[in-house]
């Protein structure tokens, strides 16, 4: 039961994964593409919005400064005389009332002498004639007509800016105005980007000129306060035309753009929190995530239902395959689902029937292989006709071989040692017999009988038999070397003859052997009995059939047991034969 559950669990996981991916991959692909293109579109929109707002803010600040310089221009229209100019004093006081950002005005004549000073916070001076020609503002205005000083902080808090303007002629002199930049706060605080985006102004050294939070401006040149604003400006410079991302003074991620204010060399920076700038993208991602979760839940439910419905048929299939695997080929699986599972069950039933037939075939081949070469057994089974095994008269080569001194060896050796030697002996000869497609008919103790050219005919059976015998002698001699190292005195002899014989299967219903009967069999057995260790003896018919294709050595006439007359006998040198091959 545990095995069933584990297999079902694995199948359930596969179905769940396939259905899950089938739903999630399209949703994920669509969500990612939507997020990517949406991000690009939103980034473009944010970039355009921030750039427009930055340019607009810079234009408003530039307009604020231009309004001041336009008013200052009315004070440098007429040349100075040596007499006090009451009209200029009245115009200066009127300008202070009209432009609240101006804190003080200083009028200098063409010779660089102070002629008038009016202030909101200090004492007014008239016609002091003090030399101001070396003043930085005066010199700057004379060289460039309009001069902007650096932002400085009154009492280290309020930002001030000095603006100096000269007239079209040197004789009209220069007007120097001190401007309180706190009033720019009205311009900056009115700039809104979205719900929480805002703008701020930095001068060239990176000091805060204006910010919606006036307290930050009133901190003056505090480095800790200015550091995040300078960092944002630096990131924008490196980004070029693209929207820059950085962190504001509170550590929040923001998108920012900048625009210059040309006159005083200021930079207007407009920033908007990324959470707000890319809010639509985040909302789309949340929607996509919701769809993915819903799709995953649906896929999981569907996979669970399908896998549950498949449990019982799969259990039956698994049980059936185990019983069939155990050899119960009569077992059948019955599934009536009308789908692929039913067809699979039908296939299993067909397979069981074929396996039963295959088992019978394998048993038949196994019986054939007991006395036929595996190639011959396969041939008989493939043709489905064992007529080749029926009795008939044909020319065969009978090969006999046995061990010399085996009887004495088996009498003094232990049974285990005897069985070990025989196992090595039959294993070596069996491989050679199979290699030459010969037929092993009988073996008893240490003796074997092998047929060549029956039941399946071969070309040049005598030559094939000579090679077979030579390789058998060579292989066993290698074994004998090892046996003698263990003090076993054993030799090996082979005899072979060719001639007509009656071949076929003999036996009874449950046991058949394939054999040969005839004079050639007796002669081969007698030659084997006459062969000494390392000898291969053949009759004259073998020598004639080989006809010089293999080296044959005439041993003259020999008396052979069972024969009244001496017979010509030939020897085969297996070392020379193998060396030549």
UniProtKB/TrEMBL annotation:
**Guanylate cyclase domain boundaries:** 397-528
Query: What's any GO biological process attached to this entry?
Result: intracellular signal transduction
Keyword Transmembrane listed = yes
Q: Output the Gene Ontology cellular-component terms.
A: plasma membrane
Q: Please report a single Pfam family linked to this protein.
A: HAMP
Q: What membrane topology was assigned to this protein in its record?
A: Multi-pass membrane protein
Q: Which residues cross the membrane?
A: 284-307
Alphabetically, the GO molecular function entries are: adenylate cyclase activity
Q: Which domain of life is it from?
A: Bacteria
As for subcellular location, the record says:
Cell membrane
**Main location per UniProt?**
membrane
UniProt-listed PROSITE patterns: GUANYLATE_CYCLASE_2 (PS50125), HAMP (PS50885)
Keyword annotations for this protein, in alphabetical order, are: Cell membrane, Membrane, Transmembrane, Transmembrane helix
Query: What SMART domains does the database record attribute to this sequence?
Result: CYCc, HAMP
Q: What is this protein called?
A: HAMP domain-containing protein
């Amino acid at each position: 039961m545990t095995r069933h559950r584990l297999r079902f669990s694995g199948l359930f996981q596969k179905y769940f994964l396939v259905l899950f991916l089938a739903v999630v991959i399209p949703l994920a692909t669509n969500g990612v593409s939507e997020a990517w293109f949406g991000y690009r579109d939103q980034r473009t929109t944010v970039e355009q919005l921030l750039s427009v707002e930055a340019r607009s803010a810079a234009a408003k600040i530039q307009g604020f400064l231009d309004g001041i310089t336009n008013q200052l221009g009315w004070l440098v229209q007429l040349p100075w005389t040596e007499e006090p100019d009451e009209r200029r004093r009245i115009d200066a006081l009127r300008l202070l009332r009209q432009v609240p950002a101006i804190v003080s005005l200083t009028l200098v004549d063409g010779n660089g002498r102070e002629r008038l000073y009016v202030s909101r916070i200090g004492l007014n001076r008239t016609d002091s004639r003090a030399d101001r020609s070396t003043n930085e503002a005066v010199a700057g205005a004379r060289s460039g007509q309009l001069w902007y000083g650096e932002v400085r902080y009154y009492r280290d808090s309020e930002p001030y800016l000095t603006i100096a303007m000269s007239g079209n002629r040197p004789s009209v002199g220069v007007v120097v105005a001190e401007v309180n930049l706190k009033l720019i706060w009205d311009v900056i605080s009115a700039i809104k980007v979205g719900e929480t985006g805002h703008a701020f102004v930095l001068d060239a050294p990176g000091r805060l000129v204006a910010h919606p939070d006036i307290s930050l401006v009133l901190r003056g040149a505090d480095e800790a306060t200015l550091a995040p604003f300078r960092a944002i400006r630096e990131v924008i410079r490196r980004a070029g035309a693209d929207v820059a991302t950085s962190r504001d003074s509170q550590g929040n991620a923001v998108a920012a753009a900048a625009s210059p204010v040309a006159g005083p060399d200021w930079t207007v920076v407009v920033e908007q929190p990324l959470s707000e700038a890319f809010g639509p993208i985040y909302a789309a991602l949340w929607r996509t995530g919701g769809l993915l979760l819903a799709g995953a839940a649906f896929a999981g439910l569907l996979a669970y239902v399908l896998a549950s419905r498949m449990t019982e048929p799969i259990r039956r299939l698994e049980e059936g395959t185990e019983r069939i695997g155990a050899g119960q080929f009569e077992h059948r699986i019955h599934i009536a689902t009308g789908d692929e599972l039913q067809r699979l069950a039908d296939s299993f039933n067909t397979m069981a029937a074929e396996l039963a037939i295959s088992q019978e075939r394998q048993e038949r081949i196994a019986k054939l292989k007991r006395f036929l070469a595996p190639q011959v057994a396969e041939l008989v089974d493939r043709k489905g006709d064992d007529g080749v095994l029926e009795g008939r008269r044909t020319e065969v080569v009978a090969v006999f071989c046995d061990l010399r001194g085996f009887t004495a060896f088996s009498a003094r050796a232990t049974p285990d040692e005897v069985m070990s030697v025989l196992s090595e002996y039959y294993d070596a000869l069996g491989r050679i017999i199979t290699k030459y497609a010969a037929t092993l008919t009988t073996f008893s103790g240490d003796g074997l009988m092998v047929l060549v050219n029956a039941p399946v005919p071969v070309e040049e059976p005598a030559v094939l038999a000579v090679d077979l015998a030579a390789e058998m002698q060579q292989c066993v001699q290698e074994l004998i070397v090892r046996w003698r190292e263990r003090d076993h005195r054993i030799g090996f002899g082979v005899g072979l003859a060719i001639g007509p014989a009656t071949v076929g299967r003999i036996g009874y219903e449950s046991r058949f052997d394939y054999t040969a009967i005839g004079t050639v069999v007796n002669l081969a057995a007698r030659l084997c009995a006459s062969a000494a260790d390392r000898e291969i003896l053949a009759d004259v018919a073998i020598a004639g059939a080989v006809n010089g294709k293999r080296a044959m050595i005439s041993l003259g006439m020999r008396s052979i047991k069972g024969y009244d007359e001496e017979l010509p006998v030939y020897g085969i040198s297996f070392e020379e034969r193998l060396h030549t091959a």
